[in-house]
Specification:
This protein is of the alpha/beta class. The protein contains five helices and 13 strands.
């Protein structure tokens, strides 16, 4: 089974987890995230706006704002070698639906944030293994961006999204930690 099959499996899995189960699990994930040293020390946090079937993160964004943390969200450039940039996010009016129910920031130059000013990236994915490798959506945006990134990386996931192993290539960059509704998996470094 190669990555495309894993993507299909991951999407199907997330779409079939009942909303109530997901909501209950998210509270546990949020509690663990908010207590993590990476969260506590971060001044700028990068996060995506989730699609309907993904783990909701509105509470995470709102908690960051309550703690006076800056939230930045990605804008992808498929025609520019799958590059990605992050822009400050402060309200839904700054978003546009670009394709496939994916919301990105409207490109406003003054809101652009350089990589070295991001402390924590909450990296999205469909499936993960305990080594921190993940199956994303196939564009390679995050692996390109994480190359040379010196901050912390955390993924949030339902326990069902964790597999014993998943295929990965030499250019895939694992996340430091995965927080599920049942545990915290430290992969590259212990928080």
């Amino acid at each position: 089974m190669y990555k495309s099959s894993f993507r299909i499996l991951g999407k199907r899995l997330l779409k079939n987890i009942p909303r109530n189960d997901k909501s209950h699990a998210v509270r546990s994930i949020e509690d663990s995230l908010f207590q993590s040293p990476s969260w506590k020390s971060a001044k700028t946090i990068a996060i995506t706006i989730p699609r309907e079937f993904e783990i909701p993160n509105e509470t995470i964004i709102e908690q960051a704002w309550r703690e006076s943390k800056r939230i930045v969200i990605p804008k992808c450039y498929p025609k520019d070698d799958h590059a990605m940039s992050f822009y400050t996010y402060s309200n839904k009016n700054e978003l546009e639906n670009v394709y496939l129910d994916l919301y990105e920031p409207k490109e406003i130059k003054s809101n652009f944030v350089e990589k070295e000013y991001i402390d924590l990236i909450i990296v999205p994915g469909l499936l993960y293994d305990s080594n921190g490798f993940r199956i994303g959506y196939g564009g390679g945006y995050y692996d390109r961006y994480l190359s040379g990134f010196n901050g912390s990386t955390i993924s949030i996931a339902m326990e069902e999204q964790i597999l014993p192993s998943i295929p990965h290539d030499h250019f895939d960059i694992p996340v430091h930690s995965i927080i599920t509704n049942q545990r915290i998996i430290h992969t590259l470094s212990v928080e």
